[in-house]
Design the sequence.
């Protein structure tokens, strides 16, 4: 039986989960040891294993967690799915450049993690609409620009509110996607099967 180890020490959420899932997807059978150095990463990796229906055991040594995940023969990973353009219209509205309310620095860190995790999700939105201070994320110097570019390559359309770009003086700094208007935003949001707002 194959045994593989991945070292996730020093990595922030959601990277340990993403790396563990990718490693599991590459395995047909055997054991994977996911090494993490904090409680949050440990719980997230265990939650991943449970969601995949796999057995997992944890051994702690020198403040490190060795999470052994067993994958039986015949198990096949689910292929990554693109956003369905015909069956299900999922769209996303991003209203701010920070994720959640509270500390601004934490909010920016969480927003970066969100878009990193979104790239690894099975279902992607058909388009993402950026409004208000959210347009800062689509402009030069954005910490999530690389993640947005990766989403665009996967077929996700990126739109930024023209009024918002003008308000923040960012018209000449747009780095990805197209400029849009409120009519187009409303039209899409009212026709979408599901809208996620952040």
Sequence:
């Amino acid at each position: 039986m194959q045994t593989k180890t991945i070292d996730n020490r020093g990595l922030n959420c959601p990277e340990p989960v993403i790396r563990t899932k990718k490693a599991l997807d590459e395995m047909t059978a055997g054991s994977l040891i996911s090494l993490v150095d904090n409680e949050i990463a440990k719980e997230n990796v265990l939650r991943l294993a449970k969601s995949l229906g796999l057995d997992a055991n944890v051994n702690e040594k020198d403040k490190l967690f060795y999470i052994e995940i067993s994958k039986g023969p015949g198990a096949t990973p689910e292929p990554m799915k693109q956003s369905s353009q015909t069956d299900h219209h999922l769209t996303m509205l991003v209203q701010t450049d920070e994720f959640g309310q509270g500390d601004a620095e934490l909010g920016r860190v969480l927003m970066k993690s969100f878009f990193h995790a979104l790239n690894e999700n099975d279902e992607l939105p058909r388009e993402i609409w950026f409004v208000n201070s959210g347009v800062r994320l689509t402009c030069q110097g954005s910490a999530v620009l690389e993640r947005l570019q990766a989403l665009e390559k996967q077929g996700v359309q990126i739109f930024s509110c023209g009024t918002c770009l003008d308000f923040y003086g960012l018209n000449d700094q747009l780095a990805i996607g197209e400029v849009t208007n409120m009519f187009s935003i409303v039209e899409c949001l009212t026709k979408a099967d599901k809208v996620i707002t952040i």
Summary: The chain has a mean pLDDT of 87. Residues 3-71 form a domain with the Translation Initiation Factor IF3 fold (CATH 3.30.110.40).
